[in-house]
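=== RUN LOG ===
request id: a7f3
mode: sequence -> structure
chains: 1
length: 81
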Amino acid sequence: MKLRDFVLAKLCLALPSFDPDTLHLGFSEDMVKEAQETLKINKKHARRVYEILRLKATDMVDEAKAREYRLDVKRRLVGPF
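=== RESULT ===
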């Protein structure tokens, strides 16, 4: 699972919807659609890649940004997306 996540994260970095500047806006249907059409991955993997790339782009020293990231992941784990 870790290797697959790594490879998909590297591939998704090239997609415009996974741009580090737009990741803080949250997970969107555009990300799912683009990942499905370009890389043939499902919604679950697109969400995991989004969380990995968002963690990479998030400054964890900033308490507000770190909390926002943690709550975003928690929303996925607690309820369906």
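=== NOTES ===
DSSP finds four helices and no strands in the chain.
Residues 13 and 66 are 21 Å apart (CA to CA).
=== END ===
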